[in-house]
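Batch manifest line 410
LIGAND: zinc ion
JOB: complex structure
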Amino acid sequence: MKGIIFVIDGMGDRPVKELGNQTPLENANTPYMNKMVEEGITGIMDTIRPGVRPGSDTAHLTLLGYDPYEVYTGRGPFEAAGVNIDVKPGDIAFRCNFATAEDDLTVIDRRAGRIKSGTDKIAETIRQMDLDENVEVIFKESDAHRAVLVLRGKGLSDQITDADPKHEGNKPKTVKALDDSEEAKFTAGLLNKFVEKSYEMLKDHPVNLERIENCENPANIVLPRGVGAVPAIEPFEEKYGLKGACAAETGLIKGIAKIAGLDIIDIPGATGGIDTDLESVGKHIIATLKDDQYDFVLVNVDGADEAGHDGDITGKRDFLEKVDRIIMKEIYEMDDIVLFVTADHSTPVSVGDHTGDPVPVFIKASGLRVDDITEYGERYAAKGGLNRIRGSDVMYIIRDLMNVISKFGA
Ligand code: ZN
Ligand code: ZN
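JOB STATUS: finished
ARTIFACT:
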């Protein structure tokens, strides 16, 4: 028996006028999910609690059974884990942008001309930086203009502000301590030194000289933000006695899974957008679901969230149809699974961001109290037999249906 949480990121939505007041999911033609709904049980879910607008990170932590108010310290640690840095509890992690600055450090392009290549060589140079004899600088490029920074050592704190000026035409912000501790002051000082030194080390970097020659903005400064101390999280396998894997597209979700101790499955061709290579994504998801070494798999496909952020109504609907046709078709045929399909939050196309609207849920498993719902959609699911649950209920429900949870009491 295998437990599966299948997250269609940002799937939940609101009625859209252009779709005859249906949501993209209600409007989408999803025969395989509909069949599973018909043979299963449905409901709606407040991932964190009613009205809370979840980030993808806090939502996924909750779905895995962790309390985000306890373990979520910021985005940095999860981004760092997502690019395969072996972060350790206590490390201070940041997400970074490669940006373009002038000699007085005024930032003129926060994305360094959306640089696509050469960031690995730039990262190699940054790793040579000598900040403090007791602090190790771990730095790695991510996709495009993104990177992560991890500081490891004694006397560090995450109680500091950001360096990213957020708007072009400004200099990097001076990082400040948020409390009176020596650790916060020390770390703030290190960050300010890091930003300045990054410019010194990168302004004449061969990759940048070539970019300047090609009339492209050089990646000559690094701007850290999203600071967080890497939390100590009870590994998933210890917590539940289940060996787990994660098949996801984005670094953020992979990072959460990695910090929770799940095995990370790499998916070639995954972009996290509606242009993702869904055939490849689907193939790797199905292979992971069929891999006998795992008792549990967390799946995330990201395109519906991106379309929601972009206000792309038909893009979102069509992506949901593709997920149904390419991935759900195969999952429909699988036995001996407890499958929980949902979203981590709503990303309504009319809002362009995450909202607190509850998300639709269905479960495919044997022995369910099947309800009368025959189609997958927000308002159909609201009438289902699972009623209204919270994200923190999910691992309990799955383990109960898998028969792996012990009785509470005699
Ligand atoms: Zn999300
Ligand atoms: Zn989003």
